[in-house]
Amino acid sequence: MLNECRKINGLSEIYYPKTKKERENFINSKSGKLITKFQYKVYDLCSQIPEGYISTYKLLANALKSSPRAVGGSLRVNPFSPFIPCHRVIASNFFIGGFDGEWIVHQSHQSLLNNKKHEEIFNSNKISRKRELLEKEGIFFDNNGWLIDWQNSKRLFTDFHL
């Protein structure tokens, strides 16, 4: 169960509304809009992913009977990070994916990168932060953004409860 407020590694307290009344008027600090019921469902599921594990946009979407893009859209504006650990959600092909509104495309889509070098984008501030958070939890990616040893990974979390 989520705590309402929590300090994380010396960071300021992160408030996470739990009751229906608290949630109905909560403004997202990133978007300036009310947080939707669907977004809360995504955040509640994401909060179930334990430290040292990852899950995928597709697995969360399947649990919600939704689409991976809808899940990604909700996580893109997650105002409760890292308390709601959206950094633990990666693409279903085990590519690191996006973080804090920034998405990188795997190397086969190099032409979509607007002439930026793949390594330059992979090492951007936001994606580097996601990689750093995951590495502290024992989850590692190669220099192209792919999960290392994903075939033998026992760190894929799938046991979501609505």
Automatic annotation (TrEMBL):
Enzyme's top EC category: transferase
Keywords, alphabetical: DNA damage, DNA repair, Methyltransferase, Transferase
An MF annotation (GO) of this entry: methylated-DNA-[protein]-cysteine S-methyltransferase activity
GO biological process, one term: DNA repair
CDD domains: ATase
InterPro entries (alphabetical): MethylDNA_cys_MeTrfase_AS (IPR001497), MethylDNA_cys_MeTrfase_DNA-bd (IPR014048), MethylDNA_cys_MeTrfase_DNAb (IPR036217), WH-like_DNA-bd_sf (IPR036388)
Keyword Repeat part of the UniProt annotation: no
Residues annotated as domain Methylated-DNA-[protein]-cysteine S-methyltransferase DNA binding: 37-138
PROSITE patterns cross-referenced by the UniProt entry: MGMT
EC number: 2.1.1.63
Catalysed transformations (reactions): a 4-O-methyl-thymidine in DNA + L-cysteinyl-[protein] = a thymidine in DNA + S-methyl-L-cysteinyl-[protein]; a 6-O-methyl-2'-deoxyguanosine in DNA + L-cysteinyl-[protein] = S-methyl-L-cysteinyl-[protein] + a 2'-deoxyguanosine in DNA
Keyword DNA damage: yes
NCBIfam families the UniProt entry points to: ogt
Similarity comment: family membership: Belongs to the MGMT family.
PANTHER family: METHYLATED-DNA--PROTEIN-CYSTEINE METHYLTRANSFERASE
Name the record gives this protein: Methylated-DNA--protein-cysteine methyltransferase
Source organism phylogeny: Eukaryota, Fungi, Fungi incertae sedis, Mucoromycota, Glomeromycotina
